[in-house]
Amino acid sequence: MRGYRQRAVRASRLSRVAEAWGTLPERTRSLTPVVIVVALAVTYPFYVDSVPTNLPVIKTVPPLHDAVTILVFVMMGVGLNIVVGYAGLLDLGYVAFYAIGAYTAGWLASGQFEQVKVHFGAVGIPSSATGIHISIWLVLLIAAVVTAVGGILIGLPTLRLRGDYLAIVTLGFGEIIPQFVRNGDELHGFDLTHGTFGISPIDPPGFGHTLNSAIGLPVRYDESFPPTPDRLFFWTILALILLTLFCSMRLRDSRLGRAWIAIREDETAAGAMGIPLMRTKTWAYAGGAFFGGIAGAYIATFNSGAFPTQFDFNISVFLLCMVILGGMGSLWGVVVAGTILAWLNFDGLGNIGSWINTTLLPSSHQIDVPKYSFGIYGIIIVLMMLFRPTGLIPERRRKREIEEATHGGPLDQPLYEMRGADEPGAGERGEPGKVPRG
């Protein structure tokens, strides 16, 4: 009897909470999950080391160093969503923007060009050091602008194409840029990219002692590699992702964003309505390249180097999988899918494979799960296309379109509807019992 009363009391409390939640404004209810997720992300560095390492299947959450790289890939996924999700332009060469941003950081914040000596705002660099040493915070902005210009230059000759032809041409540009940086160490006697060795070391951002003493952050700065704490790198990339999401939302709801969506839905109709197709699509390329350049420059300074092995074609496919898995045009879907796929790529598949080998398989039949990573990603995408084609968190407009086309929308209605012989219109067109729809 006592247990029954306790359950009744708990049920009553839950119903009151549900009623109170229902009385809140819709905007508050929609923002509450976002605030909770952001709070968990901001405090992640404080509890990541206390998470158990024997969790079921996944074993453990990603360490802070890997989490920074995961968030960089999420940021690039959000940038690619502008091109693919908003404007509907299939881009298979997005890794080119990633490479341009990284090498811009290498040129402007390292000793690569030892023929000159330029210093402007760099922290921790001796005044006698040769090369160009500009503050990384300024380099991030410069890399974004340079990459946006590169996106415009790449887009101008290619955006007159559509569909498969556009995908093939962007694939070509995505292959050209990595080959160029591999072979850019001997351009008529000038070393631009340092070839297969890459550009290293790249200057650190310069937070550490100063930030710690200014606001009392609980971080410790030392001279070990990387030269700045992972916590500050993590919080910085988290702030960059939030800025990218905010800009993407504002762009989506702007006049330019509506033009992108119109082109995605029907390019011919959008042109007939007066939308300048080339200019609008070029802006989509420039916007996606802008954020890809920031991500590339940031990961270069985080890794203290820009290396050509980081910019393979597989990266473009990987980012495209994030957009498809999350939902074309869905910002939160790309964030969730990007986090899942990037985690699988860095830690998840290895942890899951270890759990499978120790729990399910005998020692004589062990498998190396990470070796089949792209096959696993392909299976995930195929299953998504079969059972949830709108993505994990679909955009409302696109979800409505797919559902109408799949579940009896206007295109699926029969041309003729059966009516009784005694109903008005029966027998029209010489077919008793059939009348044209509408």
Molecular structure report:
- This protein is mainly alpha-helical and 438 residues long.
- It has one domain (32-407): ABC transporter involved in vitamin B12 uptake, BtuC (Orthogonal Bundle), CATH 1.10.3470.
- Helices cover 61% and strands 4% of the residues.
- It is built from 16 helices and five strands.
- It has helices at residues 2-23, 26-42, 44-47, 64-86, 95-108, 136-158, 163-182, 209-215, 230-253, 255-265, 267-272, 277-303, 313-326, 331-359, 373-387, 396-406, and strands spanning 109-110, 117-120, 131-134, 416-418, 434-436.
- The protein has a three-stranded mixed β-sheet. Strands 4-5 form a two-stranded antiparallel ribbon.
- Helix 4 (64-86) runs parallel beside helix 9, helix 4 (64-86) packs across helix 13 (313-326) and helix 9 (230-253) crosses helix 10.
- The radius of gyration is 27 Å and the shape is globular.
Question: Summed up, what is this model?
Answer:
By secondary structure, the protein is mostly helical. It is 61% helix and 4% strand. The protein has 16 helices and five strands.
